[in-house]
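Fold description:
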Amino acid sequence: MAKPSKYLVYLALILVAFYSLGPVYYIFIVSISWPKDVIKIPSPLIPNDPTIANYMRIFGYGAIDPMGNPLRPAGQYRELIRGMINSAIIGVPVTIITTAVVVPAGYVLGRYRVKAKNALIAILFGSRTIPPVSLLVPFYAFYVMTGLRGTYIGLILVHLTITIPLMTWILMGYFATLPTDLEKSARIDGCGRFSTFTKVAIPLAKPAIASTAILTFLYSWNEFLYGMLLSGGAEVQPFTPFLTTFFQNITVETSMAAAAMMTNITPAILVAAVLQRYITSIKIIDPGTVVI
């Protein structure tokens, strides 16, 4: 017979899941509902007449409501599509550069005794102890002086200041958990440090490398604060910051706003669902541990 404490754990997990998924479910329901159904009190938990018209309208297509009346596209659908393209233009280079930097950095810091290792770790992660909001004014002033404000390069650089320290810490811990036997055997067989790293360590760490790449892209896709203040307008503004102005447009109904929000969070949901086994496979230990 199960202990009462076990049922309390299950109840707590159910409440946490409801707290986490409840808002997402409601936004999804609103996004597939007609505007007339959204204003009902109470709002239906399951739409009587689900539709994809709201998604069509935010991407520039018209629709017909159940009464036969034409519905016009969202007033800022071009900017919305541009925001999605901007997020991809920024997110892909951030992911590639971050992965290229953190894989060797995490391996070296997690595996070997390096001079001033503790100082390097302190500098690397000490930069992340500063609240991002406190850096807005210095970043803004620097970007205005250097002409980086309103450029893709500027947004990529500011994202890298966050993703590189964080993902390096994750990979440091993961590399430290890997068995050393294969690497030692490769060294005995004549492989140098670099070939051991590329032929042994990287294949062993593929799940962690894939996970950090995924997390990096998701961070870049969802980043809001710097994207809002450093993009300099809609020309390079990412998708997430653009949603604030999209909601303020008088031509955007609540159901269309919900569809835009679902479009923004769907990549994260799909990635988490499809690649969950890679993300959960990351084992993080004390990055100061030296195993070689």
Q: What stands out?
A: The chain has two domains: 4-71, 78-248+261-279.
